[in-house]
Amino acid sequence: MNTDHWILLGGWLLFVLLHSLMAAEWSKRICRLAMGRWFIYYRLLYSLFAFITLGAVLVWQFSITSVVLGPFSILKWLPGLPAGLLGLFLMGASIRKYFF
What we know:
The structure is a single chain. By secondary structure, this protein is mainly alpha-helical. Helix content is 77%, strand content 0%. α1 runs antiparallel to α3. The chain is flat. The termini are far apart.
C-alpha cells in the first residue's frame, strides 16, 4: 500500500470514530451542557459535520489511483450498485421517519 492508501484508511477510520462518538448519548450530554440553549442546533451541526467529512473522504478516495484496482471502469461499479441503491433508500426512509 502506498501513502495515498494509508491516508485513505486513516480518513475512513477517523470519519467512523468521530461520527460514532458524536452519536453517542454521553457525548450528546456533554454537548448539551457545553452548548446550553444552542444545543437545539446540535443535530444540524452533527449532520453538516458528517456530510462534510464523508465528502472529504470520498473526494480523496476517488482522486487516488490504485495499482491493484487499475483505472476507473463502470464494470467495477455495477456489482455494488444494488447495495448502494438499497443504502440510499434506507437512508432516505430513516431521514423521512426522523424529520417528518
